[in-house]
Specification:
Elements: E1 14-15, E2 19-23, E3 29-37, E4 41-45, E5 55-60, E6 64-74, E7 77-82, H1 86-104, E8 121-125, E9 131-139, E10 143-147, E11 157-160, E12 163-171, E13 174-179
Antiparallel strand pairs: 1-3, 2-3, 2-5, 3-4, 4-7, 5-6, 6-7, 8-9, 8-11, 9-10, 10-13, 11-12, 12-13
Length: about 190
């Protein structure tokens, strides 16, 4: 139980830019970026807004899908009143806490424990759709080091197995990525398959 002095993780708004897309009633989909996120509301920078009360689903990088309704319309977007069930709320709060750690600098992604999984072969798909074989050098809940014949560019969006990721640096014989969505502790271990 949370004390009065210690708010629930994710209760305070986090000022952070997170990219993604959103779906308006009627099926219109647009790219967007957040200005701030909390368990209660998300301030969205968007090219087009719906109407007050319209249901909207956001698909945010590093967060996943978030549903809610438009509670305010701004000149450059809208504010979404978040509507998530208890189970999803706990995961959303944990994700917001993780993002808050990134913005405050307290989370060094390289400090995550690294493993060498049992199955090390993986398919690497570049942004252009080209596929090449890769070998996992090591793996953490937030990223991986991959050995490949032809390194993708730093900043390129790639798919490692089935996980979407971004290339963050080159290695002598490959590259390192940060996953768009980190592994959950209960699904991470030597048996993990990308």
């Amino acid at each position: 139980m949370q004390s009065q002095l210690e708010p629930e993780p994710g209760a305070r708004p986090i000022q952070i830019r997170v990219g993604g897309r959103y779906l308006l009633p009627g099926g219109a989909e647009h790219a967007c970026e957040t200005r701030s996120l909390s368990l209660a509301a998300i301030d969205v920078l968007a090219p087009e807004s719906g109407l007050l009360g319209d249901p909207v689903t956001l698909y945010l990088d590093d967060v996943g899908p978030v549903a809610g309704a438009i509670r305010a319309i701004n000149p450059d977007g809208f504010t979404l009143a978040v509507d998530v069930g208890p189970e999803r709320r706990a995961r959303f709060a944990a994700r917001l806490d993780w993002l808050a750690g990134l913005t405050s600098g307290r989370t060094d992604q390289r400090s995550d424990p690294r493993i060498v999984p049992t199955v090390r072969t993986v398919e690497v798909r570049g942004a252009d759709g080209r596929v090449q074989p890769g070998t996992i050098i090591d793996l953490s809940m937030t990223g991986a080091a991959i050995s490949v014949p032809d390194r993708p560019a730093v900043g390129e969006a790639v798919t490692i197995g089935k996980r979407r990721a971004t290339v963050v640096r080159h290695l002598e014989n490959g590259f390192a990525v940060t996953f768009r969505l980190p592994f959950r502790p209960e699904t991470f271990g030597l048996h993990v398959m990308l």
